[in-house]
């Protein structure tokens, strides 16, 4: 009797365990797609951000050798994005007053700030203020260009001692 009793208990225990286990497995099977879906819903959308210059105007001294402009990425920094840059002449002449090396700025995932260094040519000529324009184009990686995607660079001559260029 004793043996039978305990066997009965054991069987009861096993049955309960199996039922509980099956129920748990079934619950998991039903719940996991739902949980996964919720997880997907909560996953924030990728924000590659907006890329632009931090200023629309930069000043360069002719005898300083170079000018640095800042490119910022804001509103998100997800993933790698690139943006091309090129130059326009105004009264400053490409490769006479400054070196116009078109290029690409690359922001790695999480990066938000980059610089472009433009060599300025110290030409020893007496000149007025000279200006040229740099602009950003062709963003990749889902990034967009901001409003300040162009910037003016003013070269202040160091050979001309008149008022106009001596600031
Ligand atoms: Ca010059
Ligand atoms: Ca000069």
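^ Assign residues to that structure.
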């Amino acid at each position: 009797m004793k043996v039978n009793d305990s066997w009965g208990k054991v069987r009861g225990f096993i049955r309960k365990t199996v039922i509980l286990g099956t129920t748990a497995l079934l619950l998991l099977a039903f719940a996991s797609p739902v949980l996964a879906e919720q997880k997907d819903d909560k996953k924030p959308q990728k924000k590659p951000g907006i890329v632009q210059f931090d200023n629309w105007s930069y000043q360069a001294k002719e005898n300083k050798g170079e000018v640095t402009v800042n490119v910022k990425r804001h509103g998100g920094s997800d993933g790698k994005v690139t943006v091309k840059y090129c130059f326009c002449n105004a009264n400053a002449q490409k490769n006479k007053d400054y070196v116009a090396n078109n290029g690409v700025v690359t922001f790695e995932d999480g990066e938000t700030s980059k610089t472009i260094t433009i060599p300025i040519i110290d030409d020893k000529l007496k000149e007025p203020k000279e200006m040229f324009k740099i602009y950003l184009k062709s963003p990749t990686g889902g990034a967009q260009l901001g409003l300040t995607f162009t910037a003016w660079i003013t070269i202040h001559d160091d050979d001309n001692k008149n008022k106009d260029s001596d600031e």
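The two ends are 110 Å apart (CA to CA).
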